[in-house]
Amino acid sequence: MSGGPVLATEGLVVGYRRRGREVVVLRGVELAARAGELVAVVGPNGAGKSTLLRTVVGAQGALAGRVLLGGEDVGGLSARERARRVAVMLTEPVDVGLMSVEAVVALGRLPYRSWLGGRGERDQEVVDRALVDAGVGSLRDRVLSDLSDGERQRVMLARALAQEPAVLVLDEPTAFLDVARRIELAAVLSRLAATSGMAIVLSTHDLGFALRRADQVWLVRGQSVTASAPEDLAYSGAIADCFAGENMTFDDAAATVVVADNSTPGATVRVDAEGRLRHWAEHAVRRAGCTPTTGDSSLTLKIEPDARWWVDGAEGVGFGALVTHLRKSGSTAR
Ligand SMILES: Nc1ncnc2c1ncn2[C@@H]1O[C@H](COP(=O)(O)OP(=O)(O)OP(=O)(O)O)[C@@H](O)[C@H]1O
Which part of the chain is the ABC transporter domain (predicted)? Predict the structure, then answer.
């Protein structure tokens, strides 16, 4: 298996069996993830991301086709062998009662222990490293039920890392996190993929994260999955086709979907400012329905670091007042 994909699918059909009937969610799924790769699974709500991930880790059977972990069919692996190859962090809350963080993370070593054996030196080393890698070293003696959702999620990540899997699968790992923790976790996962040699496959609604950090994106839509480099999917318009709809467009620069501004274009405003001040002044100008420019224009906005501004013979303080003024006068000016 060396050099080959650590995770692959062949002719996979993903879905559910209900009262003897098959409900197909995805068909013809041909995917491969290699050691060290970070794969982002993206797609609209209900497209089948979670169902795909559950099938890939063997938590639900495939309707047809195969999932290969390290070249072996996941269906033929014992639970113990499977747990050594793939670790999973799903969105479902885990009930671990009053266990300490360290004890929960140590559960990740179970696939390596004999039924009677305790935790060995190597197990302890792996647990310690997993706690640090997931950024929860300082929480090791706390009781899991006392932690915040974000902290608990990191503990679950540490437990998954303690399994030392070849493939780590995470379903929406950033869902509960605030913006700073989300960026932090994204950085941790990118670093882990690059340094640990694990393949990390995660589903996310954060397109910016997927496009900036992933080596591959698996785009789930219309009962199929397209796998490609993020730039291919953005450049070809596949991501825009998938997400952009009425009043939504895909913004290349921001690498995300934005609300389309279909209002009548307002005036062009020359913005006389630099750096962050310029960025937020342009933001306000756009919000007012006008177009910021660095070139010549009959309207010039001058703005100072304390947000005092002058435009079109008027003056004021603060971005809110600026937007109000431009909406009243700017959009009709030329
Ligand atoms: N247990 C089930 N039985 C039958 N159909 C199901 C079951 N669970 C999910 N589905 C259906 O499968 C489809 C895919 O659901 P899934 O949860 O995989 O989507 P998703 O892409 O993860 O969505 P989201 O972004 O909202 O989390 C949906 O149409 C859903 O209704």
Answer: 7-247
